[in-house]
Design goal:
InterPro entries: MFS_trans_sf, POT_fam, PTR2_symporter_CS. It is found in: Membrane. This is Protein NRT1/ PTR FAMILY 6.2. The protein is mainly alpha-helical. The chain folds into three domains: 227 residues, MFS general substrate transporter like domains (Growth Hormone, Chain: A), CATH 1.20.1250.20; 82 residues, no CATH class; 243 residues, MFS general substrate transporter like domains (Growth Hormone, Chain: A), CATH 1.20.1250.20. Helices cover 66% and strands 5% of the residues. It has a two-stranded antiparallel sheet with strand order 1-2. A two-stranded antiparallel sheet has the order 3-4. The chain has a two-stranded parallel ribbon with strand order 5-8. Helix 2 runs parallel beside helix 6, helix 12 packs across helix 14 and helix 13 packs antiparallel against helix 14.
């Protein structure tokens, strides 16, 4: 019996619902089939996002600030919908069905986008000399928005489940290998998107590029379906969002009750091995674990179970407290992604006005983000091969802590915005000296001056992304790992939305009294350097707040360790 048990994988079933056979399910091949779809997701989302601002301005004739906001709202919605995808996967569909359904939605979205860029009636007429450009009308923008938000919906559902389903194909002992594989596929898709796909968009045609995205995603769906019999499936444990609301509702209902002096009086029914020790933070939530009249529902003679909306275990309450302790760090990392948003909006617009020729080859403006991706890969390589071994010898720990990596990310992004402001001052001085960017030509200033800002923010992402992922996964309860990942992804979403909000406010405030303000319709007539400077100042303020929050978290860690010892 013991030998038979070892042939199966704990907590996993095959496609028929039987215990998963270790020799016939899971492993690298099924994981590759699953994560292959992540290449296509990255190809579509990043290939569209990094070059969308040039299409909105150059073809749809939207103002500079409006183009930037369309891009950031699209990306913000994509990451926000990860919460919806995660909820559906956890509560109803499971990860496999969620991936297939949302991949199909994204395929429809990219197909619609390919169609909208192909048909002349779905875009305004091109500009002619001495004529005012006609902005895209409501129907044309409506079709474009439909395509983008179908893609956003598909991205949200895919991103919430594809990496998790890939890691389900391995035992927990292979955590490091799973992470490395997912990162490799993610980076490969992004690199292809910002180089090959952007070049096709600019030099051959956007409809062809988006058609490639559509076909590749359709093929990826067929590929993932082909491995149905070889996957390991984890049963849905229900959505942790419901558990959180149960604690909150129970605590509110008992808000007038007095907390007991003896913590042993709180309700607890969780198995001994999975219990979480009581802590003194957020004590208002402890009221959800106070036993009161009518908290139990009778199931029959001598049998009763607690109503989860009236009475929760100490362990359930502590799980909610653990999630609450993540929120201060969550809030102070949002601004990084606001700085990141500028790399695929205004920085691309800057690149489109600058000299991008190398010999007879002209670099597409959107492909400048390749330096951003290379900075991420180079930083990760240096960190893994140099910093970690050095830190282990010097401090005895394997590299920087999650809080330290996030701090480095915030510092680098702030420096990136400061450098971007200086470079933009130089670009504006050149534009002023020649009377603006000539139609169809570029300013006599090299686009490679933008590399430092791409590199700094890219290096920052390498630190903050891994730091956030470690922080939210390791400091959340086991039953809420999926939700904590979704919480991490909302920092990206809110960062993009924050960018849209700041652009709108700055546009309104600085563009009053008849002037074009900092964010003019043509960036040569604005003061983008001031906007970058504003983000750098906000970055400094945010960093100070983060350091206070990080110190509080370190203190909280020590107090929690003392409670566990006791």
């Amino acid at each position: 019996m013991e030998g038979k048990t070892s042939l199966t994988v704990a907590d996993a079933v095959d496609y028929k619902g039987f215990p998963a056979d270790r020799s016939k399910t899971g492993g690298w091949v099924p994981a590759a089939l699953i994560l292959g779809i992540e290449i296509c997701e990255r190809l579509s989302t990043m290939g569209i996002a990094v070059n969308l601002v040039t299409y909105l301005g150059g073809t749809m004739h939207l103002p500079s600030s409006s183009s930037a906001n369309v891009v950031t709202d699209f990306l913000g919605t994509s990451f926000l919908l990860c919460l919806l995808g995660g909820f559906l996967a956890d509560a109803f569909l499971g990860r496999f069905k969620t991936i297939v359904i949302f991949a199909a939605i994204q395929t429809v979205g990219t197909g619609t986008l390919a169609l909208s860029t192909k048909l002349p009636n779905l875009r305004p007429p091109p500009c002619h000399a001495n004529e005012e450009c006609k902005e895209a009308n409501g129907i044309q923008m409506g079709i474009l928005y439909l395509a983008l938000y179908l893609i956003a919906l598909g991205t949200g559902g895919l991103k919430s489940s594809v990496s998790g389903f890939g890691t389900d194909q391995f035992d927990e002992k292979n955590e490091e290998e799973k992470t490395q594989m997912a990162y490799f596929f993610n980076s490969l898709g992004t690199l292809t998107a910002v180089t090959v796909l952007v070049y096709i968009q600019d030099e051959v045609g956007r409809s062809l590029a988006y058609g490639i995205c559509t076909i590749s995603m359709f093929v990826a769906i067929l590929v993932i379906l082909s491995g149905t019999k070889r996957y390991r499936y984890k049963k849905s444990a229900g959505s942790p969002i419901v558990s959180i609301f149960q604690v909150l509702v129970a605590a509110v209902k008992k808000r007038d009750m007095t907390l007991p002096y003896d913590i042993g009086m709180y309700y607890e029914s969780a198995p001994e091995g999975s219990r979480i020790h009581h802590t003194n933070q957020f004590r208002c939530l402890d009221k959800a674990a106070i036993v009161a009249d009518n908290d139990f529902v009778k199931n029959g003679p001598g049998s009763a179970t607690p109503n989860p909306w009236k009475l929760c275990t100490v362990t359930r309450v502590e799980e909610v407290k653990m999630m609450a302790r993540l929120l201060p760090v969550w809030a102070t990392t949002i601004l990084f992604w606001t700085a990141y948003a500028q790399m695929i909006t205004f920085s691309v617009e800057q690149a489109s006005t600058m000299e991008r020729s190398i010999g007879g080859f002209t670099i597409p403006a959107g492909s400048l983000t390749v330096f951003f991706v290379l900075a991420i890969l180079l930083t990760c390589a240096v960190y893994d091969c140099v910093i970690i071994p050095f830190w282990k010898k010097w401090k005895g720990t394997p590299g920087f802590t999650d809080l330290q990596r996030m701090a480095l990310g915030l510092i680098l992004s702030t420096l990136g915005m400061a450098v971007a402001a200086v470079v933009e001052m130089k670009r504006l001085s050149v534009a002023k000296s020649v009377g603006g960017t000539p139609p169809g030509k570029s300013l006599p200033i090299s686009v490679f001056m933008l590399i430092p800002q791409f590199f700094l923010v890219g290096a920052g992402e390498a630190f903050i992304y891994t730091g956030q992922l470690d922080f939210f996964i390791t400091r959340s309860p086991k039953s809420m790992k999926t939700m904590s990942t979704g919480l991490f992804l909302t920092t990206l979403s809110l960062g993009f939305f924050m960018s849209s909000f700041l652009v709108s406010v700055v546009k309104k405030v600085t563009g009053s009294h008849g002037g074009e303000g900092w964010l003019a319709d043509d960036i040569d007539h604005g003061r983008l350097d001031c906007f970058y400077g504003l983000l750098a100042i906000l970055g400094v303020v945010n960093l100070v707040v983060y350091l206070v929050v990080a110190a509080w978290n370190k203190k909280d860690d020590k107090e929690t360790e003392m409670v566990d010892v006791v």
